[in-house]
Target: Methionyl aminopeptidase
Amino acid sequence: MIEILSPAKLEQARVSGALVGDILATLRARTTVGTNLLEIDAWARGLIEEAGATSCYVDYAPSFGRGPFGHHICTAVNDAVLHGRPHDRTLADGDLLTLDLAVLTGGVAADAAISFIVGEERPAESVALIEATERALAAAIAAARPGARVGDLSHAIGTVLRESGYRVNTEFGGHGIGSTMHQDPHVANTGRPGRGYRLRPGLLLALEPWVMADTDELVTDADGWTLRSATGCRTAHTEHTVAITADGAEVLTLPTARRVAAG
Model:
């Protein structure tokens, strides 16, 4: 299903997006060396419930997972990149952490992910991975406008990632979003320009470049959810929900401070 939002639903999407951005910013600020992944999940639950929102992950049970996800946020560390299931793990200095959060308010979902390094250590490889996904996301957002095609966004992402020296996995990528977290169209992280669904005002897309340092192959943890690099190399993942408007793409999942600064 491809869903086109009405102006009223688009306004609600802004509310959902702002909440996602603010929760992720709060969790990033709270996370330090010694933080446990289960603490982060508990903090996310509290912030979501305080806002009167609903996590899209607790009851999430797609065909590729193992039963309901059962947590409020995805927490992926170092070689884990997608669907990281929170567990009893304490973060160390230099760990690369990805937080992926999706919530529903007023019948509209928003989805975003951030990758950052915990503590004071700054491994160069980790910094490069994060920056590559951020540049790729910016390129996709710049390409998103009415009349553009999904392939244009995929091509923009893939070009940046490959030029940064990374292989691109196409099993998982971006997606439409609206009344449910995952909808059509699928937005692969590489593709051919001029192909695929033509973007229209009112369409919401969750764009999510992710990479692994030296492979494009994934393996699944025994938990049935957490996806890791097949070689044990580090990974990064950056995501925003954007709305296609008459003027281009509006990023909905920026935290309040960045939205205000952007004017």
In short: The radius of gyration is 17 Å. DSSP finds five helices and 14 strands in the chain. The longest helix spans residues 7-30. The chain has one domain: 7-262.
